[in-house]
Structure formats: C-alpha cells, structure tokens
Amino acid sequence: MRATLPGLIGRRIALSSRGARRRLIRVAGAALAVILVAGCGTRAPVAPGGSAAPSPAQDAVVVVATTTVFADLVRQAGGTAVRVTSLVRAGGDPHTYEPTPSDVRSLAGADLVVMNGLGVDDWLKPLLAEAKRPVSALVELGPDQPGVTYLAGVGGTGSVNPHLWLNVAYAELYVKRIVAALQAAAPAKQAVLQASGEAYLARLAALDTAIRARIATLPAANRKLVSYHDAFPYFAAAYGLTIVGTVVPAPGQDPSAGQVITLIREIRASGVKAIFSEAQFNPKVEQQLAAEAGVTMVSNLYNDALGLPPVDTYEGMMRWNADRVFEALR
Ligand SMILES: [Zn+2]
C-alpha cells in the first residue's frame, strides 16, 4: 500500500521524540554489540586480505578513538604497534552520542586520543580535561588538512561539513597525520610505523582508484543520490556524484513538513533513482519517503560507524558503499 503524505508526516511526528529515537538507537547499538562480542568468541577478527588480525605488542601505543572508523584507520596504519578502542560502538551515531563515565576511564589510560573534530565528535574535548589528558595527546583529523577543499555544512553560517573521510584520498591524509602522531608518541617504533603506514596508504590509494573507476562506468544522468543525513558531499565530489538532497537537517533533528514536501518535489524533478538509508539510523522514514516519491530505497550505507563483516573495516565500508551506489544507480 502506498503511504500518503499526511500519513508520512504523522509518523514523523510519532517518531520525532529525540529521546525515544536515542533509546531506539541505543537498543540497536547494544544488540549489535552483543552480536559483535558473540562473533569474537567464535573466531578471530579477520583483517582485509583474509589474514587474522595480529595481537598488539606488549608495549603498543594505547589509542582511544571517538568512532570505529577512526579506530580502524589507527589499527590498520599502526598494526601491532597500537592497541586501539573506540568510544562510540559499531552501529552508533557520533553526532548524538552521550559520553559515559567509562569513556573518561578509557581516556585516562590513553597515550593518544583520536577524533575528527569539525563538529561530529566535539563532545570529546571536555572529557579530555576530566580524564586529565594533556591537549598534546589529542589528534584532530579533520581540521587544517592541506589540499582539502572544505565543503559547507548544512545550515550555512560558516560551519564546515565534517565527513572528509568518505573521500578515500582525504582518509589518506588522516592516516598520514595518525602515523606522524604515533611516531611522535613512540620514537622507538618509527621504522615499523613507517612501514605499516605506507603499506596501508598503498591499499587506500588502490581503493580510491577502484571506486572512481567503478562509479565512472555509471551513466552520467544516473549519478545522483539522496541520503539520510549530510554525510556524503565529499564522497560525491570525489567520485563524480551529485547529492540531490538529505532527509534530515542534522542527526537528531527532524525535517519539517515543508522540508519533506520540498524533498519529494526535488526527488521527482531530478529523476534521482534511489534514496539511501544509513545503517545507524532507523530506515522507516526513508522507506515512506521513497514510497511517496516513487523511487527505490537502498539500505544500508555506512559512514559514521562501522558494522559487522564485511563492513567492519574502513576499506570494507567504502567498498560496500560503492557497490550499493553502483547497483542502485546503474
Ligand atoms: Zn555524520
């Protein structure tokens, strides 16, 4: 049965309690965490390429990252020279994350703390002082990256879109900054970190080329998409796609009835073939929106958090997203 527009807006209001949605996300996150833990009990984590991930060295640099995405960049770049954890779990949303006392305890034991900055995980900064970690232990990956064309965030007023890492070439800049910080924190491991960092950068360069080549085979008129939140402008700019619109102004903020109507109009006018939902959000709203606009809904893209294999690494996530986009738009 086709969803009616009043029905859609009515259900948005029903879903619009921020607390209720957070509880829903927490429950989903907790369920995923249980699955992940259960999975770990039966087999070793598998690194890209199929080899079992080696254990950290006894004297590994202890790193705490805000999200699973940045934790994986650190793990892949640092190899056995790092021991890394993430504050936001797989499947979680960093934009609306509420830190816990155990986060402060994790930070207190960290040699290095890795965040994106630019608004996506700025809740970390007050925790650093609470954990009595010096500012020198903090690595911010997003700001002041040479060679980056920064794009405006939603709502203008000078804000910058923080999701640089969804352009693989920009993720390579993140990795270079991570390797430099690890080398400064562990001078005795400079050579081994150089080698592991360079090997990872070579894989990322190949991944960047592969995604660009794949998307380039799509008909030019089809290279358009609608996403749930404003996570993909760097991905789109890098790989030749156009973002027609986003469903929510920001995670945790619901669109107004007027914004929903405008988006449906834009979807119809642009001829966009698909709306993409994101794994950390409830896809129900987008299912209704896609039905209303008469286009396909594709679940699930990943952007701010990793998930279960094969999207348990940054490389796996980017391959997964490129495949989903390719399949839906070809
Ligand atoms: Zn985001």
Short description:
It is built from eleven helices and eight strands. It is an alpha/beta fold and about 325 residues long. It folds into two domains: about 55-210, Nitrogenase molybdenum iron protein domain (Rossmann fold); about 215-330, Nitrogenase molybdenum iron protein domain (Rossmann fold), CATH 3.40.50.1980.
Whole-angstrom Rg: 20 Å
Kindly report the name of the CATH homologous superfamily of the largest domain.
Nitrogenase molybdenum iron protein domain
Structural class: alpha/beta
The CATH architecture of the largest domain can be given as 3-Layer(aba) Sandwich
Major beta-sheet overview = 4 strands, parallel
Number of helices: 11
Spatial order of the strands in the main sheet? 2-1-3-4
Q: What is the count of structural domains? A: 2
Q: In CATH, what is the class of the largest domain?
A: Alpha Beta
Which consecutive residue ranges, at least 5 long each, have pLDDT under 50?
1-51
Shape: globular
